[in-house]
Every structure is written in C-alpha cells, then in structure tokens.
Amino acid sequence: MTATEPSSTARPPAPSPAPSPQSAMRLRELVFGAACAAAVRAAASLGIADALGEEPATAEDLAAAVRAEPRPLRRLLRALASHGVFTETDDGRYAHTDMSRQLREDAPNSLRYIALWCTEPWTWQAWPRLDEAVRSGRNIFPDLYGKEFFDYLHDDAGDSARVFDKAMTHSSRQSADDLAAFLDLDGVSSVADIGGGQGHVLAGLLEKYPALHGTLLDLPQVIAHADPRLRAGGTLADRTELVAGDCRSAIPVRADLYIIKNILEWDDDSTRRTLRNVVAAARPGARVVVVENLVDDTPSMRFTTAMDLLLLLNVGGAKHSRESLLGLMTDAGLRVKDVRPVNPYLHAFDSTVPVRQ
Ligand SMILES: C[S@@+](CC[C@H](N)C(=O)[O-])C[C@H]1O[C@@H](n2cnc3c(N)ncnc32)[C@H](O)[C@@H]1O
C-alpha cells in the first residue's frame, strides 16, 4: 500500500446526496492552495506591489518594472486578482486592492515578510509530510534536514533566517504598541523579554518608561542583530542588557516583570523547561506575562490553524488553547491572575511567581 492509498480498514462510503457544484468547486480550489500561496510569494519576491503606484498600470509596464516577461506576469496577476490581491480594471490594467497594498514593503502594516516567511522554501518540503506528523505526533524537520528547525535556520538557511527576523520584526512592531498600551508597569523597574527576538517590544517599553531597565534574551544569532537602539551606542543601550542564551537551559536574569511572547509554541517539554527556568530565576512575587495567539479564541481561525500545523511540522509545537496554556503555566508553579485580550489576535496570561514555602 502506498502512502496515498486509503487503509484497507477504511469504512465503505455512507450513501449521501450528490455533492453541490459549489462544494466540488471549493474542494478543487482548496487542493490548489499551494498555487495560491505560490502566487502571493511570487508577487512578494518580484516586488509587484512596490512597483505599482496609486495609478493602475499595464502588465507590460509592471513587467518592465520588476524585470519579468509580460505574458506570464499577466497570468500571475489574473490568478492573484481572482483572490482579491490586485484588481483588473475595465481597460485591462491592474490596480491595488487593500490586500495587495499590504504586500508593499513600505505599507504601514506590511505583510510582505510574513507572506515570504509562510512560504519559505523549507515549507514546501515540509507540507507533504503532514500525514506523517499527524500519525507520529512529532515534527518531521529532523528527518528532512538532519537537525532541529532553529539550528537549520541559523546554520544552513541564512536567507530564510533573515526573512524570519524581518517577519518577526514587522509583527512585533505591530503588536509592540498594543502591548505597551496594555501593560500597566506601575511599580516595575526592570523587565526581561525572553525570546524577545530583536527587541522591538522591549525597545518600545523602554522608550515609553524612561526609568525602566530591560533585558533581552534570545539565541546568540538573534541577539547579534538586536535592534540598534538596544546595542552599544544606541539610545537605550545604557538601560539594556543583551543576553545570548537558550531559555530552555537557563534564564540567568532577575527582573520585576518577565514577558514571554509568541515563543511557547514549540513542544510542551520545551515550554515546561522555559517556564520552570523563569520561576527558578525570578524572585517571589515577580510578574510573568505570557502573550500568545490562541487557537480557540481568534478572529482568524484559518490562519491560526494553518500556523498550528506548520508548528507541528517544524518544531513539533502547537498554538495553545486557553486551557492548554493555563495548564502548563500552573504546572510550572505560576499563579495565573487573569487572561485578557491585548488586541483581537493576542491574549496575555498575567501571572506571578509564588512566595516559596
Ligand atoms: C516567534 S518569535 C517571537 C519573537 C518575539 N517574542 C515577538 O513576539 O515578536 C520566537 C523567538 O524565540 C526565539 N527562540 C527560539 N528558541 C529559543 C531558545 N531556545 N532560547 C531563546 N530564544 C529562543 C527565536 O529566536 C525568536 O526570536
């Protein structure tokens, strides 16, 4: 039996009414989801959205601007326009839509790097192995590339690592303001961002609170490219400590407040180790705020469930439900006080490290 054949134990199909033409069409579209993702990736890589201004342009003009062949570019634009990314005008030119504008690098809430990140070359190797990951419950990344995901990213896929950093930077920037507005830092004089990426959330908080001190902990390759404001010579450097390390091994940082945002999405063992390391490092009474997108409370179930599956493939991880994250935090010894939305996509789990008996 090949991997694509149904098992001999499959039940015979139940008698059912003939499928509606709409459902058949929708399923055909679904199985071509890769074409849709590839088209968006091609538009982002070619820089079509950046080349198109506010005036509609012909495929020929756009082809000249992005150094492509006009006929295949027109086909690409037609496919994209069928999904509402760009639109074709009555005279056969192409214009921006809300969605295509967000592929511009200079768009205020640009999704260009998120579009590239979600369609990086390794994803196209990983998706066909989803059935394996579902069977085994494990990530397939080590089988594919001989090492764990973040090791591969930093050792072998420099371009992908840069796209990842930029995608994280863009989404951090977009959520940093929301988080800074959300967090009440009364009585907090030091904050540590664990797995804080290049430090946009931290820099935002340090700029907002001039007496605050901050620590950014992340992997060495990420710390090396921290936000220039936080590095030596930067405007916030005298209030910042940069710590290169693995938070699953140790968190050698003392702070009043620990922020752990969008990193507890790997396997549960890594999450347990990270939370226990925070509890071990923190003084009793310190505050630990975990910020995550929840799979059971999201305005975008299709995006979040897709990301959940990608996390299964690459790091053996998952997007959490409210219950699963509460369970892991409580097991680690944290007292969760409340769970509140930071914005429609993110929830903050506000907790404290209990006084040791
Ligand atoms: C999805 S990003 C989130 C970044 C940032 N917290 C934010 O919300 O924008 C996950 C971060 O975890 C970091 N990370 C992954 N494994 C880590 C580890 N073992 N120790 C410390 N940081 C790690 C990655 O380098 C990356 O910056």
Automatic annotation (TrEMBL):
Residues 1-22 are annotated as: Disordered. Keywords: Methyltransferase, S-adenosyl-L-methionine, Transferase. GO terms for molecular function: methyltransferase activity. Residues 1-11 have a biased composition (Low complexity). Residues 29-103 form the O-methyltransferase dimerisation domain. Residues 127-334 form the O-methyltransferase C-terminal domain. Pfam families: Dimerisation, Methyltransf_2. This is Methyltransferase. It comes from Kitasatospora kazusensis.
